[in-house]
Amino acid sequence: MDDITQQFFATNETIIRLVVALLLGTLIGIERGWVAREKKAGQRVAGIRTHALVGLLGGIAALLSQALTPWAFPLIFLAVAGISLVAWRAHTVETQNYSITGMIGLLLTFCFGAIAVAINLALATACAVITAVILDNKREIHGLLYKLQSHELDAGLKLLLISVVMLPLLPDESMGPGGVLNPYHIWWLVVLIASISFVGYFAIRIGGTEKGILFTGLFAGLSSSTALTLQYARQSRRNSDLEPMLAVGILLACGTMFPRILLYTALINPGLLPTLTPPILLMGLALYVPAFFIWRTQHRKLKVERPTLTQNPLELRIALLLGAMLALILVLGEWLREVLGQTGVYLLAATSGLADVAPITLSLSRMSLTTIEGGTAILGIVIAASANNLFKTGLSTFIGTYRLGRRVALPMLLSLAVGLLVAWLT
């Protein structure tokens, strides 16, 4: 902002803020007026003009509170609320429509005008735009309720419980052997894992069956690539014609695991990224490239049922198990580091990675801040990822058909070799 603009704003600040209050009311009024555009004049309780004037009135009420008495704003607000209540009461009797959304929107418009004048223009504008979007998407928002299943609502509420309720209550201090246990940090990692699984679950849910293996495989890596591998391996026994596409789905899911590893590391210890990124990206590419070539030759057979999502992604029992696993890995890692040095950390990474890469990735990233070197953590993460993909190769080979196992095994072994080599050299 140059000097002339600053001087103009300072000289005319009150006028500018009142104009913004008027425009914010107009914005919400346009949305409300468009909804009731078929009604005749006088049948609408509040349209463009009413909302614009109420926004301006909110700004004037804020000025009067500053210049005359602090009671000006609450008294005018109560007057607007009373007038709105009388009007909506009459409207309800006539139309039998008991929704008060429009009245709430009008009262919010008054408040936005006051915020624009007395507090912050950007905050008032953001709130007004969000309000207009919510009012304009009534059908879509209500439609979500019909699509939402009870266990998914339960999952969302539990995510809020473990994040905004439980997390702030935990002590943020080092405890246990070597001070490696921090209750707040451990539970924050649990929330992180649960949140990513939650996003991955709904990515698959929203994508729908028609998106096929390609979409499902990409996003399954955010939640559980092991579960998808098991599902597709079983499906290959039932429909051998889909083996190439099932292999594509498995490779995509396993490849998506590697960006997730980088995300975990970036959140815990970004300093590892410059050295960790090359081997992790190469391991992912070693899976994505073969998947792309298989897809190119088999793209007409992409239609397939996506995996059935039957598990609640945020059961508290699972969250507690993850927290316990993270704490156990941190304690074992510290003990093995003292007894066996780097060898102990690598052994822990290999055994932990068979089940899941998330806990060991988070644990090693955390330990690299205090007790182990960055290079040890990086190689340990690569070892864990390699062990995890070897396990999924075994699932594809022994539970699925031989041809599916062969299509999956070659890229997996290449990914393992490239990752270990680059990590060792760097």
From TrEMBL:
Transmembrane segments: 15-34, 46-65, 71-90, 102-135, 184-206, 245-264, 276-295, 316-333, 377-402, 408-425
Keyword annotations from UniProtKB, A to Z: Membrane, Transmembrane, Transmembrane helix
Pfam families: DUF4010 (PF13194), MgtC (PF02308)
Signal peptide residues on this chain, from the entry's feature table: none
Domain MgtC/SapB/SrpB/YhiD N-terminal residue range list: 18-142
InterPro entries reported for this sequence: DUF4010, MgtC_SapB_SrpB_YhiD_N
Domain DUF4010: 191-400
Keyword Transit peptide tagged: no
Name this protein carries in UniProt: MgtC/SapB family protein
Species of origin: Vreelandella rituensis
